[in-house]
Design goal:
The chain is mostly helical. It has 18 helices and no strands. The protein starts with 19 loop residues before the first helix and ends in a 7-residue tail after the last helix. About 60% of the residues are buried.
Length: about 525
């Protein structure tokens, strides 16, 4: 069994694709590349902006007073629909052309962003975020399809690398933009800012992106799409309810978990029999593809879960403003960009297997380190941890994709790339649900332990005590209105205990990913 190096595998998604501009011998269209990269960056910009907005959204005075469970759904509704509809987005791009699908995705994303900026309750924001996820599911496959079809083969790898780097740029810009907006405007501005960007992208697409035909016409797998979204929704709902203090065997937890699992099993069974499956399960017969999918799932579960509680930590016990928290979190984005750039050379030196393993292990170590942070931890140390996490994740993406695609036949390269993207989104959804549930459950337990509470906090009226148990943000707001600083101190201490439990759980998950990468990322190079 040979090790896979980065140079052994052709760019996923490019195999067998038509070379529209290459046949004419024309140079790549940089205006086209710029427009689709800007559209792609919207996906990552919106996700990273939300990371610094969660604390404000939880504030009853300045935000929507969202509970931890509602905030989990604000984050998860987007990625859940995004992941579930991504295969359908690819099929629509093939059927109606990537230009038309790209315009439709931008319009849907922009309309939902504008509506989300003015909602009056967390429930409606969750709906808006879900619609934004559907728009993103149309955007991502269409942008890659445009690049593949308008770039000569000899320039395609470089163009796809630029397209891929948009994720790092979006992650870097998002916290800064979000922090600046929250420091000067109301919470809805972090969603409203998407609207002018969408408008510029749509003008650019209409002006420079040509009409293109997809390489093949796929049927829409509506039953498969429905089963996958409902199944994932059931699993995520059960995990979130567990964090809200429900017992694992209660109907609010056990029934959605069992139903979600059954629907996902039905989805896999249906895909095996479908003539036009959304998910080609034959891909998982390749050991490297199966192991790589598990590693990606775990890595993105851990990272998304970690960033969820890190944002609360920076703006809570650490006392940073949204703008300052955004600046600190740039360190992770810089690490992702540098790690991604270093991964090809590292893979040639160490092989893809050990590059991925070292990246996952580096993130696990930093997650463990969070168990020693408190309200006075120096910012340079926090930024260093975030940088190492980002660099580790940067080392994972390209090499694990190389291993996954090494045994995939050219005719299934597009399907393999879609699985790669979906795995990241599903991992992010489950990671937020897992971390949020642990955070909420442990925090509520600490705030309910009357023996550990100061007398003034123990004597709060029942309604106020329940508000304080909802979240640390709600407790701080209540402490300010009641002029009760010891309540804020107690809430910060309870939050830190909850964060320690969450970060050690995330670290354990990352160590499982390290073990899978060492044991499973060995495959023969496709000849």
């Amino acid at each position: 069994m040979g090790e896979v190096r980065a140079s052994d595998v052709s760019e996923p998604g490019a195999a067998g694709a038509p070379d529209a501009m290459g046949k004419a011998g024309r140079p790549p269209s940089w205006p086209v590349l710029l427009v689709v990269v800007c559209a792609q960056m919207l996906i990552w910009l919106d996700t990273s902006v939300l990371n610094v907005a969660v604390t404000t959204l939880a504030d009853p005075a300045d935000g929507l007073g969202a509970t931890p469970a509602e905030l989990e759904w604000v984050a998860s509704a987007y990625t859940l629909v995004f992941a579930g509809a991504l295969f359908a987005g690819g099929a629509l791009a093939d059927r109606f052309g990537p230009r038309n699908t790209l315009l439709a995705g931008l319009a849907l994303f922009g309309a939902a962003s504008g509506a989300g900026a003015f909602v009056s309750s967390p429930g409606w924001l969750i709906v808006a975020r879900a619609v934004m996820g559907a728009g993103s599911a149309l955007l991502m496959p269409a942008t890659l399809s445009v690049i593949v079809q308008t770039t000569p083969e000899e320039k395609r790898t470089r163009a796809i690398a630029i397209w891929s780097s948009s994720s790092g740029l979006g992650v870097a810009v998002g916290p800064v933009v979000g922090g600046a907006l929250l420091g000067n405007f109301w919470w809805g501005s972090v969603f409203l800012v998407n609207v002018p960007i969408v408008a510029l992208c749509m003008v650019g697409v209409a002006a420079v992106v040509p009409e293109l035909k997809g390489p093949r016409r796929r049927q829409l797998d509506l039953p498969g799409l429905t089963l996958s979204v409902l199944g994932l929704g059931g699993v995520v709902y059960g995990i979130i309810e567990l964090g809200n203090g429900r017992t694992w065997y209660g109907p609010h937890v056990l029934l959605p978990l069992l139903l979600g699992g059954a629907l996902l099993a039905a989805f896999v069974a249906a895909q095996r029999r479908s003539p036009a499956p959304s998910l080609d399960v034959r891909l998982f017969r390749q050991p490297g593809f199966a192991a790589g999918s598990v590693v990606l799932l775990i890595a993105f579960m851990a990272l998304a879960g970690h960033l969820f509680y890190a944002a609360f930590y920076l703006q809570g016990p650490r006392g940073l403003s949204p703008a300052d928290a955004g600046l600190v979190m740039i360190a992770a984005a810089i690490g992702i960009v540098l790690g991604s750039q270093a991964s090809p050379a590292t893979s040639r030196l160490l092989t893809a297997r050990w590059t991925v393993a070292s990246g996952v292990l580096a993130t696990a170590v930093t997650y463990i380190a969070y168990a020693w942070l408190d309200g006075g931890t120096p910012l340079w140390f926090i930024a260093a941890l975030l940088w190492i996490q980002g660099f580790g994740m940067g080392l994972v993406g390209t090499p694990v994709t190389a291993v996954m695609m090494s045994g995939v036949p050219p005719q299934l390269a597009g399907a393999g790339s879609a699985v790669n993207s979906v795995t990241r989104q599903v991992g992010g959804t489950l990671g937020v649900a897992m971390a949020g549930s642990i955070l909420s459950g442990v925090y509520r337990s600490r705030m309910s332990d009357t023996a550990e509470l100061p007398d003034s906090v123990r004597e709060l009226p029942p309604e106020a005590a329940e508000q304080a148990r909802t979240s640390a943000e709600a407790a701080r707001s209540l402490a300010e209105s009641l002029h009760l600083p010891e309540l804020a101190t107690t809430a910060d201490r309870a939050f830190l205990d909850a964060m320690y439990a969450a970060t050690l759980s995330i670290a354990a998950l990352a160590l499982v990913g390290f073990a899978v990468s060492v044991a499973g990322l060995r495959t023969r190079t496709r000849k």
